[in-house]
Amino acid sequence: MVAAVPTRTLAVPGPTLAVVGPTATGKSALALELAERYGGEIVNADALQVYRGLDVGTAKPTAGERARVPHHLLDVVEPTERFSAGDFARRARAALAEIHGRGRLALVVGGSGFYLRALFAGLSPLPRADPRLRRELRRRARDEGPETLHAKLARVDPEAASRLAPADVQRVVRALEIVRLGGRPWGEQTADRPLGHDPLPGVWIGLTLPRTVLYDRIEARVGHMLERGWVAEVEGLLARGVGRDAPAFQAIGYRQLVRQLRGELALESAVAEIVQATRRFAKRQITWFRKEPQVRWFDARELASVFDVLERGARVDLQS
To answer: Do the strands 40-44 and 16-20 form a parallel or antiparallel pair, or are they unpaired?
Structure first.
């Protein structure tokens, strides 16, 4: 693996940069350039890129990009395995310690807001998983539909339900589990320690776009993934024995293409559903990151200002 040789120096403090924002804003491309300019390594903070075999539909960095810059937390679990925010935070902190130990800049890159919060702020204590209860809730989701389970969450924890899509069965189940085992909504259980423990310092860069531009990019991105063989990728995973209930197949795009390959959905309908679901997901990402006060926002079409701030400490207006 070729390590990037720094060509510039940073005018901001700290050994860690986080590049965040909604999908399709160009976070990975910016991170590659930052890593090459400043001698950095990239830590993945995308909840799906941790899965082996999910390459096309997650826009995972290519072999060539990984040769240019060292990457961490890609391809670390099988599609059938569960991978929590706590798992991510533990592995990411270990990776950051190694990168900092080499005297290099660490770039944490991705759009999974809860993973990033778990890493930088730490996790508040919550009830441990109950396998029996989890199996019961997943059975209900399968037999009665994910909307029914989400409606139940809305009754017992409206705040958590507002942050989760009905189709995000894994996290809806976890939210219900927390309420059932802890006896109170998720937010109430973490109110005493909202930032968890042992927070990490870092400079956060957020990429943003006008909503119409972002939505056009999302549609084009989905089309590009299909051209690169997304359907064949899903077909191959199914052929390997990855079941439709696997955690990785609950993700946007993968669950629709599983249904399409099983004859439950026409390809045209699957694509339309993927685009719409991704747009809704991007909207939720924007809402999440706007609540993170440490993020400094930049228009993704005008990245020169990012380098101005990092290299000269130049003052720029925040994007609305």
So the answer is: unpaired
The least confident of 8-12, 32-36, 155-159, 292-296 is 8-12
Span 84-137, pLDDT tens digits: 888 999 999 999 999 999 999 999 999 999 899 889 987 666 677 778 888 888
13 with 203: CB under 8 angstroms?
A: yes
Query: Where are the strands (E) in the chain, listed by range?
Result: 16-20, 40-44, 71-72, 105-109, 203-208, 295-299
Domains and CATH numbers, the chain: 16-124+195-312 (3.40.50.300), 131-190 (1.10.20.140)
Query: Is 251:48 a contact under the CB 8 Å cutoff?
Result: yes
Give the C-alpha separation, 271 to 264, whole Å.
Answer: 13
State how far the Cα of 258 lies from the Cα of 264, in Å rounded to an integer: 9
214/208 Cα distance (integer angstroms): 8
